[in-house]
Amino acid sequence: MEKTTQHTQSQLTKVVFYGPESTGKTTLAQTLAKQHQTQWVPEFAREYLQNKYNKTGKACEPSDIMPIAEGQMALENKQAKTSNQYLFCDTNLLETYVYARVYFPDKDFSRLKSLALSQDYDYYFLTDIDTPWEADDLRDKPNERQEMFNVFRNYLIKYDKNFCILSGDLEQRLSKVNKILQTNNYATFLKT
User: Fold this and answer.
1) Within 10 A of 90 (CB to CB), how many other CB atoms are there?
2) What per-residue confidence (pLDDT) applies to 6?
3) DSSP character for 62?
4) With contact defined as beta carbons under 8 Å apart, do 180 and 189 qualify?
5) Does the residue 122 lie in any domain?
6) Crossing angle for the helix pair 110-118 and 93-103, nearest 10 degrees?
7) pLDDT (tens digit, 9 = 90+) per residue, 128-139?
8) What residues form the membrane-spanning segments (predicted)?
9) What pLDDT is recorded for position 10?
10) What is the tens place of the pLDDT at every residue in 71-106?
């Protein structure tokens, strides 16, 4: 896989679903891509870390963070080449950075932070924790959902990212996203 941490330049509207684990990001990205007949970008870390866990029984380590970031951007750039109008992203480098800070607070991730803050998305949708928890090999914070939501929200605020919170069932979330995309009226939904 091509090593890159830079966005491919395009005229696409880039939408990122951002937030804690098990909050519906993948389902939203897949469903909206299907509705809009375009591509979606899966979370590279999921496959990468599942493969690592299957082979070694080990979870994420600090040395995994930059390969995950590089893999995420390579996937995003690949999907952007065959997308039309919209590109729906299951995650982005800012999410990777947040997880790195949460799990490895004493490590230096300044390069990832710089890369994450240099990436532009047209819409940030913060996914709320009002979805059922789905356990798997990688998810490990079922009792810290509110704390993790707050961490993700605080990073968006800290780095002055405009965002909209998606709550409710799948249909409510899809309706809100589609209304915003159709009207391009993001401002009325910011931080709500």
Assistant:
1) 25
2) 53
3) G
4) yes
5) yes
6) 150
7) 999 987 776 566
8) none
9) 61
10) 999 999 999 999 999 999 999 999 999 999 999 999
What pLDDT is recorded for position 73? 96
Residue 31 belongs to some domain of the structure: yes
Here the CATH number for the domain that contains residue 180 is 3.40.50.300
> Which amino acid would we find at residue 62?
P
Domain count, the chain: 1
- Which residue range is the domain that position 90 belongs to? 13-189
Instruction: Output the CA–CA distances (angstroms, integers) from residue 165 to 18, 23, 114, in the order listed.
Output: 10, 11, 24
Per-residue pLDDT reduced to its tens digit, 136-164: 656 676 778 999 999 999 999 999 999 99
Whether residue 2 is contained in a domain is answered as no
- For 66-121, give the DSSP string: HHHHHHHHHHHHHHHHT--SEEEES--HHHHHHHHHHH-TTS--HHHHHHHHH---
N residues, the chain: 192
Q: Is residue 4 part of a domain?
A: no
Q: What Å distances lie between residue 78 and 10, 11, 39, 118, CA to CA?
A: 12, 15, 10, 19
